[in-house]
Amino acid sequence: MSPALQTPDRPASAALRSFEAQWRTRPADSLSPVREEAMQRFLKLGLPTMRDETWRYTNLRSLAAQSFVDAPRMTRGEIEPSASLSLLGGTERAATVLVINGHPALPTADTMINGIEINTIGEIARLDPKSLLRFIEPLSDADQQRWSLLNTALFVDGLYLKITTQVATPLVILHVATGNGVNNVAYPRVIIEASPGSSATIIEHHVAQGEHTPLSNSNTNIALGRDSQLEHYRVFATGGGATHIDSLNIHQEQGSRCKQFTIALGGGVVRATLEGHMNQPHASLDSYSLLVGHENRHVDCVNIVTHAAPDTRSRQTARAIASDSSRVIFNSKVVVNAGAARSDSQQSSRGLLLSPTAEIDTRPQLEIHADEVKCAHGATTGRLDPDMLFYMLSRGLDRDTAQSLLVYAFLADVLTGMSVPTARASIENALIAQLPDSQILRKFR
Amino acid sequence: MLKISNLCARVAGKDILKGVNLTVNAGEVHAIMGPNGSGKSTLAQVLAGREDYEVTDGSVTFEGRDLLALPAEERARAGLFLGFQYPVEIPGVNNVYLLKAALNAKRKAAGEPEVDAYDFLTLIRQKMKFMQMSESFLTRGVNEGFSGGEKKRNEVLQMLVLEPKLAILDETDSGLDIDALKVVSAGVNSLRDPKRAVVLVTHYQRLLDYIVPDQVHVLSGGRIRKSGDKSLAQELERRGYDWVLEAQVA
Amino acid sequence: MSSKPQDVAALIGQKYRHGFVTDIESDSLPPGLDEGVVTAISKKKHEPQFLLDWRLKAFRHWRTMREPTWAYVHYKPIDYQDISYYSAPRAPANAPKSLDEVDPKLLETYAKLGIPLHERARLAGVAVDAVFDSVSVATTFKEKLGKAGVIFCSFSDAVRDHPRLVERYLGSVVPTGDNFFAALNSAVFSDGSFVYVPPGVRCPMELSTYFRINAAKTGQFERTLIIAAEGASVSYLEGCTAPMRDENQLHAAVVELVALDNAQIKYSTVQNWYPGDENGVGGIYNFVTKRGECRGHNSKISWTQVETGSAITWKYPSCILRGENSIGEFYSVAVANNYQQADTGTKMIHIGRNTKSTIVSKGISAGHAENVYRGLVKILPSAAGARNFTQCDSLLMGPQCGAHTFPYMEVKNPTATVEHEASTSKIGEDQLFYCLQRGISAEDAVNMIVSGFCKVVFKELPMEFAVEAQNLLSVSLEGAVG
C-alpha cells in the first residue's frame, strides 16, 4: 500500500516503518479516505530532515531510528492523582477536561461545560463525518505540516469543542502523556470551533505522568467564526527528555480575534508550530511565545501567519531565554497574499542568552505579495542591557536582584498579554522555577 | 564630604578627564558648567561607578572612604545619588517596585528594617504630589514611555525618596519647560540641608536662578579651568566659555 | 492622483540602454562540459599543473552536486551541456600592449556604454582592467601601481607571473566544493582580476574592472582574487553592462577577498546586466559567490552593491570575521522590476572576539518582480563581545510584485548582541502628493523618494560610482509608479 515507502535514495527509517505498522492496524472509520491520503503523503515525503526549511535547527535522526507503538489507553482512574494537578486545576474558576494519550476521558459522550459543547471526535465522525472534513482538509505537503499528516492518519480519538456563546470561564484541556516503558507515541487531536459572535478562553496544558513519556504528536485545529473571539493557550510542561511535536492550525473568518499563547516550559524537545490563516477581512491574530530553554532542552517554535484578506492585522511577540546547554529557535513568518491590502503586521522577537553553551536562533521572515501593507519586525539577541543594569545598581540594588528583575521584565510583554490571572500566575510560577536566581524572583513577585 | 584629586579617566580608549580637582563640603551646592564634550557627564558617571569608564589616575574620597573602590550599588547605599542625563527606560520593571527595592537596599545597608508597604506608598504619594506627578506613574514601568520632562521629574522624585547625602544631577534641567524647571528646582531645594551636598552639572545659567550655587566651576578639556561664586555663571551666560579658555592659554 | 495609463505604459517600456552586440569573431570552444573541456581550458591558458588539478578536483565535485533550490527564484532548468565554456577575442599572436593597440571596435563599444576608457582612466585616475568576454584585453595604470608594489592584473597574468600567490590564496575563502555554482566556476573559470596589495601599502587609486558579456551562448565565469596584506588597504570597483540577448545567459562568478592583520578591503559593485524584456524574456542569470575573510586582527571588509540588472540574481557577498576586532559590512540596494527575480543578501560569520558587522539592505520591487533579502548572522561560541546590526527595508511599487525578508540569526555566545530591524512599505501617497503639489512630476518625485530610501547605501559608494548608481536606479524604475 505504500509504494514510496522505500525509495533507493531514502531507505525507510525505523520510525517510518513503525508508523506504517500502526497504520495497518487502524480500523476503518468514516474518515478513512482522508486518513489514507494523509498516510500516503506522509510516507512519500518521509520524516522532515534538517534540509527542510522549518526543520533546519531540529535534528530528528535519533527519533527516526526508533520504533514506536501506540501509547497505552488509560482511564481517569488509572492516572495517579498528581497528574490531575493541572496548571489551573487548583483554581475553582476553571473547568478541566482530561485527555490521556490523546483519548478524551469525558464523563459522558456529549457534555456541556460552561456553555461549551464537548464531544469526542470519534462520536462526531460517526454521526456527521462531513462536518469534520473542513478541519482536517486540505492536507499540505509543506514541511511544517509533515507531522500533521501523520496525526490525521493515525489519531484514534480526540476532543471536539464547540463554543456557542460568550463564555467567561476558562476551560482547561489537560493532556496527560504517560507511557508503559516501551517507545510509545500518542496522537492527541483537538478541534475547536468558535461559532459566530462567541468568545472563550481555552487552555491546553500538556503534562507527563510517570517515568516514561511517550512521543507526542499533537494537533489542534481552530476555526473562528465571524466576530468570534478566542484566547488560546498551549503550555508544554512535560518533564524529562520527551519529544513533543505540536501543530496548531487556526482559520479565521471576518472580524474574528484570536489571542494565542505558546509557552514552552518542559520536555526534552519541543517543536511547536502555529499556522494562522486570516481568511476574511478584519480578522486579527495576536501570537505570544514564551520559550524557555533550560538544561538540555531544545525548543523549536515555528509561526507562519498568513494575511489572506484585506484589512487583517497580526502581532507576534516572542521572548526566548536560553540557559545551561539549551537551544531555543524562534522561526516566524508573515505572509501577505496578493490582494490582502492594508494588511498590518508586526513581529517582535527578543532572545536572552544566559549561558556560553546555550544557543538562540531567530528567523523573523516576511513574504509580501501586496504593496499597500504595513509590515515590520524587530529581533534582537543578546545579554541583559548594561544601561538598565547600571541604572538599577546606581539606585543601590544588588547585582543579583537587578539581573533577576531584568530577566523577569524581559518576559513581561508576554505575561501582561495574558488576560486570565490564574493562568498567568501559574505560568509565572512554573517559569520562575526555571530561571536563574529563582529565589529572588519569587520574592518580588 | 567629597574630595576629588587629580582624577583622570578614559572611555573607549579616549582620555576624557585629565586631572580634575574638586572639594565639596556638606551643606554646599556646586555647579559644574562647561561646553559640550568637556567631560561633565563623564565625571558624573565615573563618580557613580560606571564600569566602562576607566579611571587611570587620581583619587576620590567620599566621607573619608575610597569611593573608587566601591561598586556602583555600594556607592548608592553610602548616600551618593546620580540623576541621569538620559534615564534609561526599563519596561516591565515597575517604578514603585524599583524605588522600594532601592530604599530597602539602602535601609538594609544602614541596619534598618525594611519599609512598611503602606508607609512607603504614603511617602511616595506625598513626594509625587510635591513633584506634581500623575497617579499613572505608580503603575508604569521605569521611565517607560515618559517624556523627557517626566523622566527628569522621576529622577528628582527618586532622589527625594532616597534622601542621599550627595546628589549629582547631570543636566537635570535640560528639556524642561519653565514650569517643570520650577518644580524640579523646588525638589532639589527641599533637600538642601547642612548635612547634604548637591553637584549640579548644567549647560545653562537658567537653572542657577532657581537653585543658587555656592560655587561655580568651569570644566573644559577634562580639567576645571576656573572656579568662582554664582556671578561666574552669569558672566559665562553673558560672555560664553571662550574667554575662560583663552585666559587659560594667556 | 495616478497619472494617465499611456504614460505608465510609456515609462514602463523603458528599453535597455546598453543593448547591442559587438561584432568580433570569437575563438570559442563548442558547447559542452566534461573533463576534456576543463583540461582544454587549462591548456589554452597555458596553466601550471596545480591549477589543472585544482580545476579537475572542482569539476569532479561539481558532478556530484545538485543545483540549489532553496532560493526564491524560478527559472527553466539550465542545460549545462548547452553552454560554451570558453571564448576569447581573436588576437592571440599580437596581443595589445597599450590602449592604442586595442581593437577600435572594442573601444567604440565602451564609448557606447558611456565608459570612455582612456578618458575616464585619465580624468578619474582609475585603472580599468576591462574584461571583454572572458579575456582581459586592456590594463592601464600598471606602472603607477607597480611603483607602489600593487599587483593588479588579469587572473591569467597572475597565474603566469605570480603562481605562488595564486596557489596560496586561490580557493582559500571559497573552496572548490563550496556550492554548486562556485564549483562550476572553479572548474571552468576563464579569467578575471587579481589584486595583491603588499604589507603597509595603501593602494594609490581606486581599482576598477568593467565586465561585459558578449558572444552568444557564452557563460561567463570570472574569478577575482584580492589580497590585502598586513596593514594594506584597497578599494575595488566592479561594474557591469551587457548587450541585449533573447537567450538567457548564465553567469557564475566567484570573488574571494583576503584581509590580513589591519588590512582593509572595500569592494563596490554596480550590476546592470540585461534584465530581460518587459515580458520576462531573456536576461542574465547571475549566480555569484562573493566572500571575504577578515583573516587578520583589526581587519575590515566592506561590500557595497547596487543591483539593478539580471533576470535572476543569486548573490550573497559575505564576511568571515576570523581576526579579533575585525569588521564586516554589507550595504545593498537591489532593484527588481518587470519579471526580475533577486535573491540577495549576506552572511556574517563571527568567529573572532569583538568582531562587528553591519548590514543595510534596501530592496525595491516593481512590476511583477520578486525581491528577496536573505541573510545569515552567525555568532560562534568563540566570538565574545561580537555585535551585529541589521537594517532591512523593502519598498513595494505596484500590487503585483513581492518583497521578502528571510533573515537567520544564530547566536552561540551570551556576550554577543545581535539586532535586526525590517520594514516593508510602499511609496506614500502623501509623499507623492506633496511633491506633485509643489510642481514636481510623478517620475521625479518617485526618483527623489527612492533615492532618499537608498541614500544610506549610496553614500558608501565611491563618488563616481554613486552618480552612476543613482542614474541606473532612475532608469530601472522609470514608470514603475504612475
Any overview of this molecule?
Chain A is of the alpha/beta class and 445 residues long. Chain A contains 10 helices and 22 strands. Chain A has helices at residues 14-25, 32-45, 61-64, 121-127, 129-136, 146-154, 386-393, 399-415, 421-432, 438-444, and strands at residues 69-70, 95-100, 103-105, 111-113, 116-120, 159-163, 171-177, 184-186, 189-194, 199-208, 215-224, 229-236, 243-252, 257-264, 269-278, 284-293, 298-307, 313-322, 327-336, 344-353, 359-368, 374-382. In chain A, the strands form 2 sheets. In chain A, strands 1, 4, 5, 6, 8, 9, 11, 13, 15, 17, 19 and 21 form a 12-stranded mixed beta sheet that branches. Chain A has a 10-stranded mixed beta sheet with strand order 3-2-7-10-12-14-16-18-20-22, covered by helices on one side. The termini of chain A are far apart. Residues 1-8 of chain A have low confidence and may be disordered. By secondary structure, chain B is an alpha/beta fold. Chain B has 9 helices and 12 strands. In chain B, strands 6-9-10-3-11-12 form a 6-stranded mixed beta sheet, with helices on both faces. In chain B, strands 2-1-4-5 form a 4-stranded antiparallel beta sheet. Chain B is globular, with a radius of gyration of 18 Å. The two termini of chain B are 34 Å apart. With 482 residues, chain C is an alpha/beta fold. In chain C, strands 5, 6, 8, 10, 11, 13, 15, 16, 18, 20 and 22 form an 11-stranded mixed beta sheet that branches. In chain C, strands 4-3-7-9-12-14-17-19-21-23 form a 10-stranded mixed beta sheet, with helices on one face. In chain C, helix 3 packs antiparallel against helix 9 (180-188) and helix 10 (429-437) packs across helix 11. The longest helix of chain C has 17 residues, at 442-458. Classes of the chains: A alpha/beta (445), B alpha/beta (250), C alpha/beta (482). Chains in contact: A-B, A-C. The interface between A and C is medium-sized, with 36 and 34 residues. Strand 21 of chain A pairs antiparallel with strand 22 of chain C.
Q: Could you name the ranges of chain A where pLDDT drops below 50 across 5 or more consecutive residues? A: 1-8
Percent helix range of chain A: 10-25%
| Count of beta strands of chain A | 22
List the strand order in the largest sheet of chain B: 6-9-10-3-11-12
Number of helices of chain A: 10
